[in-house]
Structures are given as C-alpha cells and as structure tokens.
C-alpha cells in the first residue's frame, strides 16, 4: 500500500515537471504571436492553469465535507507559492522588475490578502466567498486593461499551432500529475494518522503548488521574471478568490487566524522587496523616474524559504 502511494507521488512529480515546462513553452510562444505581455500571460493563463489543482481539490474537499482541507489547500498553497516557489526561483535566478504594472498587481494582491483576513476573521460564509469571487473578476479585467508591452525576449521555434498543442498537453499533464501527487501525499499522511488541517496546509498545499514551482523555475531559467511574478501573484489571487471562494460558497469554512496571518506576512514581505528601490529613493527624496527598476535577489529568496520552514515547524508542533 505505502509503495503504491510513493509511486503515485513520483510519477505525479514527473508529469508536473514536464507538463509545466511544455505549458510555459506554449504560452510564451502564443504571447509573442498575439503581442500579449509576458506579465498578463503569467498572471492569467499560466496562473489559472497551474491553480486548477487547488481549485479542484479545495472544491472537492468542500463537497466531501472537509472544510479544513479546503482552506488548508487554498491558503497553504499561497504561503507555499511565496515561501517555496518564489523562494527557490529567486535563489536559482534573481529576478529583475522593470515594469510598474507588476508592482501595481502586487499591490492588488496585498489588498486581496488583507480582504481575506477581514472576511475570514470568524471563518468564511457563502457571502464572503461571493465577495472574493467578485474581487477575482475585477482583478482579471484590471490586469488585461493595464497591461504593458515588455522587453523580455521570448525565443521559440514553435509554430502557433504546435504551441497550442503544447499548452493543452502540458496543462493536462500538470492536472493529472498533480492529482496523482495529491492522492499519494494524502494517502501517506492518512497512513501515519496526520490530522486533516495539517494535511491541507502542508502536504496537499505543497503538492498542488508543484505546478507553480515547475512553471516558475522554467520561466526563471529563461529569464522571464515577469512570468515568474505574474504566476505567483496570479496563482495566489486565484487560490484565494476562486479556490477558497468556491469552497466557501459550498460549505462554511472555519477560522484559521494564525495561518491567515502568516499568509499576510508573506504578502507584505514580497510587496516590500518588490518596492524596495522605490522606498529607498523616497527616503532620499529623489524623484522616481518613469523607467522602473527593482530586483528580488537570493537573500530575499532565503528569507521567503526560512519563513515557510518556520510555518511548517509551527504546523507540526515543534514551535509555539
């Protein structure tokens, strides 16, 4: 039994790695063909595509009567996206931020995170879920309308037709791989009698975040920083405003204030690092010119990872 569960996780991980790479290849080629900015592709198509495992898993958990698993998967994935996905990506390839639109979308993500804390203070009702979903629709419209052209070069020999096939096949591989990984992870956790909430915030959240990890590392390797940040920000908004909102509209979600607070801390940290250069210039009373430049470096990546590890230690009862 345990051997089968481990096999599911291994095979699922392989599908996630290859599927995400194919999806990035196809998406970037289509973006070039239609002259769509890399950030919009990362914040919408890539983000939503890689967030499908969270959306499906959380909704399924809510329908099955496991609200703790639903919220743990959605919010836990947000924490993992910054702590592990962005942390590892930046550790491998520091990111350069050149466009104000990325910062603006990051600020929208912070607003969504604060809204999440306010709505979830006493748990999430169906009405709270509806508010989060409406916020999601507003974000998508804003992202498309305010997109800018970017100068990150996309090099690909794929035709548009082949790129479309890559997107579909890659996305299917990501979804199937994530499903296998989650089943294996859940089975192993249950085998060792790990509580539902811990499964949601740790193993399941990490498992459903693997598509974002594979996609972000693949994009970072190609020096497509806009896609990396767009993927993380868009995925986190999708996780909370789609995965969690759908779950809340299905069943009432209990409160998890500590976990929501950790999620807020992670959001504040990423916004600070994205705006660091601007803050420095403001403190020196310098004019902030039209051309935007900022950097998320390896030290930032280490700080993201450390906070995530502390959070895991808290979940497992090693601290506090």
UniProtKB/TrEMBL annotation:
Keywords: Membrane, Transmembrane, Transmembrane helix. GO terms for cellular component: plasma membrane. The chain crosses the membrane at residues 6-24, 36-56, 68-93, 105-121, 127-144, 165-185, 197-220, 227-250, 256-274, 301-319. GO terms for molecular function: calcium channel activity; calcium, potassium:sodium antiporter activity. It holds the Pfam family Na_Ca_ex. GO terms for biological process: intracellular calcium ion homeostasis. It is a multi-pass membrane protein. It is found in: Membrane. Residues 6-144, 165-316 form the Sodium/calcium exchanger membrane region domain. This is Sodium/calcium exchanger membrane region domain-containing protein.
